[in-house]
Structures are given as C-alpha cells and as structure tokens.
Amino acid sequence: MTTVVFEALRMRRRRTRRSRGFGVTGIVATAVVGLAVLAALLAPVIAPYDPNEVDFGLTYRPMEPWALLGTDGSGRDILSRLLYGARTSLLGPAVVVLVAAVVGTLLALVAAISGGWVDRILSRIFDIGFAFPGLLLAILAVSVLGPGFTTAVLALAIAYIPFIARIVRSVAVGEMSLPYLSALVTVGQSRTRIAGRHLLPAVMPTVLAQSTISFGYAMVDLAALSFLGLGVQPPDADWGLMISEGQRGVLQGYWEEATFAGLAIVIVVAAVSLIGDRLADRVSLNREGR
C-alpha cells in the first residue's frame, strides 16, 4: 500500500512539473538572455559613443546623464563598452559550445553505434579529457599559440569536447540497448542509417540541455582568459577584459567599470544556467515517461 501511495505522489509531481514548463523563472531567464543577445546585435545602433574613443580629460567620471554608467580610466564610455563587449562575451561561448557539441556528439554516436574496442578507446579518451579542467588546458594552449580571441575560443572548444561527448555517449549507449534499435541492428540495417535516423534524434534533447549548461561555464572561462590577458586583447571591449582593466579604478575608488562588467557576466550566466536546468529537467522527465 505504501509503495502505491509513493508511486502516485511521484507521478503527480511529475505531471505538475511537466505542466509547469519553464515556469516564471525560466521565462524571465529567457528574456534576460534575449535582451543580452539583442544588445549585442544592436550595439552599433544603440551605443551612445565609440567604445574605443579615448579622452584622458574625462577619466573616471561618475554616472551622469551624458555618461549613464560613467567612464573608465581612459575616458571611454562604460555603457558603450558594455554593449560592444556583449558581442565577444556571447559569441565566444556560443562558438565553443557549437564546436564542442557537434564534434562531441559525432564522437559519442560513433562510440555507441560501434561498440567493442572503438567504444572502449573513445570512452577512455573522454575520461582522460574530462579529468583535466578545461580552463587549464585552454591556458596551456593559449600560452603556446599566443593570446587572442580566436585562439582562446578554439582551445576552449577542444577542451569542452570530452565534457559533452562523455554525457551524450552514456545516453546513446542506453538508447542502443532499447528493443527497437536492437531489432534494426539484427535485421542488418546500416549502422550509419540507424545513427542518423534514430539515435541522433533521441540524444538531441540531451545535447541541447548540456550545451546550454556548458554555455555558462564557457562564458566564465573565456572571461577568465580575458582577465588574465590571454583572451580578447585591448582596446577591444570584452566583459572579462573590462574587469581586468577596472581593477586600477577600484583601488582608487572608481568601482563602476569592474562592477558593471562583473554583474553582466553573473546575470547572463545565471540566466543561461537556469534555462539549462529547465531543459535538463524536461529531458529527464521525458525519459522517465517513456
């Protein structure tokens, strides 16, 4: 009797979570990310000033009507630099996640559909890559190849491939054990066809959820690389670089540049993480309901 009651409660919670969808928090998070993307796309139109225009006569001005967020140590408008900085701060993680998701998913499908020694070798490679922090690998790569936005993005994308591939491979292996896929293999259908028509659509929700979560991590990592001087280079605008450049102002009592750039990163990362959590919940609920 107790087991029946617990099962009924579990099914009720599951239906409630499904009907709730993204919820208010998810909708707000999506709106925040949408506004950030819109600001990045429209930066040349809505930015009040040239983000790289230097005027040493206007250094460290407080927030005023003509400079809503003040100016930095070079007299540049902070609001304009935040708007332009959204472009590299959002584009970089998007490229990292796109490359890692595409390559990682392909490798995961190869491992799941091949099985045997291919799966064992790829799984060991995924485990080894997963054991090393992505930021550390990116720092090593950038140190060898030289600093810059492109180098940092590519290095971090390579570091993220095992992270996504490992998770997608576990889902794909579970799918391959299902009766309908086992039957297709038994009747001699091409493994490539099985992977493309059946396995890939089955793992795509997991890929999407994991990519969304990884976006936040990639954004923080790229900001850290720019902060260390290994990512976006001056005078280009980038939120991580603005925090680094704003350190001098904080020591002198001018907190605006570093604080607003840091808040931008925190808000966007938190919003993307909430969206990723909602997507992951929906994926797990769909798998439970199968």
From TrEMBL:
GO terms for cellular component: plasma membrane. It is found in: Cell membrane. Its main location: membrane. Belongs to the binding-protein-dependent transport system permease family. It comes from Agromyces mediolanus (Corynebacterium mediolanum). Pfam families: BPD_transp_1, OppC_N. Gene3D superfamilies: MetI-like (1.10.3720.10). Residues 86-276 form the ABC transmembrane type-1 domain. The keyword Lipoprotein does not apply. InterPro entries: BP-dependent_transpt_permease (IPR050366), MetI-like (IPR000515), MetI-like_sf (IPR035906), OppC_N (IPR025966). This is Dipeptide ABC transporter permease DppC. The chain crosses the membrane at residues 21-47, 90-113, 125-145, 151-168, 199-220, 258-280. One of its GO terms (biological process) is transmembrane transport. It comes from the Bacteria. PANTHER family: D,D-DIPEPTIDE TRANSPORT SYSTEM PERMEASE PROTEIN DDPC-RELATED (PTHR43386:SF1), OLIGOPEPTIDE TRANSPORT SYSTEM PERMEASE PROTEIN APPC (PTHR43386). Keywords: Cell membrane, Membrane, Transmembrane, Transmembrane helix, Transport. It is a multi-pass membrane protein.
